[in-house]
Design a protein that fits this description.
about 210 residues; alpha/beta; Rossmann fold; 2 domains; eight-stranded mixed β-sheet; 3 helices; 24 strands
């Protein structure tokens, strides 16, 4: 089923989201952003311009005018996605790039986006408003809680549990059977080989907390 979609946010991440919206056969209405002027052009596709159509707070006006519209928050910061989702109770769509591989045994909650070439394997549960970015591998039996960002080319082994708001950096590797608590940053290229039970930033091979 195709949907009419408004993207909240108009930065670089939103351009990738827009590509998924269009390639999935949905209708992109435009972008809402607080830092850009109305009618600022964000992307062009088939001779059609897709522009900023209002501020983020205008989402409620657009929804009141058309209850069939769905929304997606295209902002990389986990905490900002949470703030917007809690402030504006809207119908948020889940977007999955047609070139990703997602097991039929996987459950993905609203507002989450799965980018091109990502792989999500069997019996994985992914929460609300997560980002499974380009080329990320999420193996079987993972639990990814709300507002998590799994960055490009990162790899999660089987039976990994990632707490809410945690950011897994580009190219990071998480060994199988690992638990990572909420509010963590796992640095780019880090290798996590033991449970992380304390919030903070972890870097290196093997990953250790950065003081």
């Amino acid at each position: 089923m195709c949907h009419k979609i408004i993207i909240i946010g108009a930065g670089g991440h939103s351009k990738v989201i827009a590509d998924i919206v269009i390639k999935s056969g949905n209708t992109l209405i435009g972008f809402l952003d607080d830092s850009l002027a109305i009618n600022t052009n964000i992307i062009n596709y088939n001779d059609k311009k897709f522009n900023v159509i209002g501020k983020i707070s205008d989402c409620l006006t657009f929804y009141e005018k058309d209850k069939n519209i769905k929304f997606i928050i295209a902002i990389g910061n986990n905490y900002i996605r949470n703030k917007i989702a809690n402030q504006y109770k809207l119908p948020y769509i889940t977007l999955i790039h047609p070139n990703s591989i997602v097991s039929i045994q996987t459950k993905i909650e609203e507002g989450t986006v799965v980018m091109a070439n990502a792989v999500i394997n069997a019996n994985t549960k992914i929460g609300k408003h997560c980002i499974i970015n380009t080329g990320a591998i999420v193996e079987h039996d993972n639990i990814i809680e709300d507002y998590v960002h799994i960055s490009p080319n990162s790899s999660l082994g089987g039976t990994v549990h990632i707490g809410e708001y945690t950011h897994i950096g580009i190219g990071a590797t998480i060994k199988n059977n690992i638990n990572i608590t909420s509010n963590c940053i796992i640095g780019a290229g880090a290798v996590v080989v033991k449970n992380i039970l304390e919030s903070g930033k972890y870097v290196g091979i093997p990953a250790n907390k950065k003081l």
